[in-house]
Amino acid sequence: MTPLDLLVQRFDPTRDREPYWQCFRLTISPTSTVLDLLLEVRDLHDATLAFRRSCRSGICGSCAVAINGHPRLACMTRVPEVLDPSGSLSIGPLPGFPVLRDLVVDIDPFFESLRAFLPWLLRRPDYGGTMEQTTVEAAMDGALCILCGACQAGAGGSTAPKPAALAQGVRFALDPRDLLGPVRLWVLEQAGLLSPEAAQRWEASCPKQIPLTRLVARGRELLGDRPAVQGKSGSLGA
Description:
Elements: E1 2-10, E2 20-28, H1 34-45, E3 64-67, E4 70-73, E5 88-92, E6 99-101, E7 104-105, H2 108-115, H3 133-143, H4 150-154, H5 163-173, H6 182-190, H7 196-203, H8 212-223
Parallel strand pairs: 1-5
Antiparallel strand pairs: 1-2, 3-4, 3-5, 6-7
Helix pairs in contact: 3-5, 5-6, 5-8, 6-8, 7-8
């Protein structure tokens, strides 16, 4: 077992004027995850520590936090892989999101902003065929998104462009069952989301390693003749 100084950002808006760091002296094993440490702190040191967690399998996305300043999933991050040279580790809330308490952020605006892009299948009533395996595989890149918000934190927070909207938009644009099809790509382009340079930056924040640059390339390839869309630029739900 190896000793570790764990720094956790604390903040209770009902009591604290500003966030502060609290240090916990723990020991870790080679297989310890960041979520293991948070659970140990809550169960053995300070039961008031607030954080989200559920599946512990990298599926639900609820445990996304900033680990040494980088957005990651706590349940999928092994501590020995992210220790800084001094042997310490810091955990804070996702940057760019309003903090509700400690490591819990308000993610509702993130989901509300996605609604403008209609991130669900709008089935064509006239489609009765099947999909080629290559089409299914291409669409699966976007289907890997678990909406954890890590990419949004890496993109600058709730007011920045929505990388998750890119993943979902291209996913359904590739699906021949979808009613909107290429219209989704036009909206993504108007919102500035079909940018190879931006996608490359956003990939670095994605804990599921979704190939956003590949999705952008596929989207731009399929865009072709841009359809005329009435309504608010950069959204489908307006």
